[in-house]
Amino acid sequence: MDRRQNPRVTALLPVRIWGVDAYAQPFMQLASMKNISRSGASLQGICRQVRPGQVLEVQLDQQKAEFRVLWVGKIGSSSQGEIGLERVASEPCIWDMNLENCSQFVGMG
Questions:
Q1: Cβ contacts of 10 within 8 Å, gap of 6 or more
Q2: Are 38 and 29 in contact, with CB atoms under 8 Å apart?
Q3: Burial of 29 by CB count in 10 Å (0-12 exposed, 13-18 middle, 19+ buried)?
Q4: Structural domains for the chain
Q5: pLDDT truncated to tens, each residue of the chain (109 aa)?
Q6: DSSP type of residue 105
Q7: Which of 18, 76, 71 is nearest to 48 (CA)?
Q8: pTM greater than the 0.90 cutoff
Q9: 93 vs 49: CA distance, rounded Å
Q10: What is the DSSP letter of 86?
């Protein structure tokens, strides 16, 4: 059973992320969203090491918001370069989509 509070859908969209990496070095890079929900996303193509609990800025088109890193793909595994993010509560949702309708549509496919 899925414990998520919000529907999650596949969304391969380019985003820009920036923040401070695990070595306290500032960075900015392009990445791809793998899937999204109202409260978070998973990204792929992350080149810098980050740690759970860190806050990163994510920009999609002209919209941007802060997200907290929940998990980081293990180095050497198939999830290397992936991270899971949760939107900081005071931040807006930057993807303007009806995710519930999207997830129902995908489920019917």
A1: 34, 35, 106
A2: no
A3: middle
A4: 9-108 (2.40.10.220)
A5: 455 566 778 888 899 999 999 999 999 999 999 999 888 999 999 999 999 999 999 999 999 999 999 999 999 999 999 999 999 999 988 886 544 444 343 444 4
A6: H
A7: 18
A8: no
A9: 25
A10: E
